[in-house]
User: Fold this.
Amino acid sequence: MIEKLLPAPIATAESFTDDPVEEMYPEEFALVERAVPHRQREFGTVRNCARRALASFGIAPAPILPGPGRAPRWPDGIAGAMTHCTGYRGAAVARTTDIRSLGVDAEPHAPIDDPGVLGLVTLPEERAQLTRLAAHQPEICWDRLVFSAKESVYKAWYPLTGRWLGFEDAHLTLDPTDATFTARLLVPGPTLSGRPLTTFTGRWLIGSGLVMTAVVVAR
Assistant:
């Protein structure tokens, strides 16, 4: 599923089941040894996905540990992202000669039940957009899609800036005609090749009970 959103030169790997905890590196297990078994398995499985994707570039298996901001610390010359939710683990990596940064997120394709949560993750203009979209395509959980897209935006943003980006710091516009979205930054973004980055663009996909989003910042 993930490869449909992120084709070459990005390498991807995914899993719909969990690997044994014993397959984790000791350094990885030490980070979750006090967590519940479910959390341990998802932590290890998504890293195994990342190692399979990295193998596409001839990179030998090694622990994947968190760095600043708890973002994964990738090998030199690699940009990447990981995601996991109930029933799904996935990872995507690329060489930094091709891709500056990327973000990917998967969520269960189900509505956000709590109005308070929806209020935290969306702007008033976005909620108005969700109402319009739901009137035309009620079978799509547009609120969950916005949440996932903003998660992907953050994962692409953080390696470029090293700064937090709140849900309220980007205005998201969904385009149902081609399954794309645009996130307009409401805070100053990074400067890339002498030009300020003001928007992120991405794609989305629904299938297998999931909504998946991805953002790529090309070199």
The first strand starts at residue 11 and ends at 15. The mean pLDDT is 96.
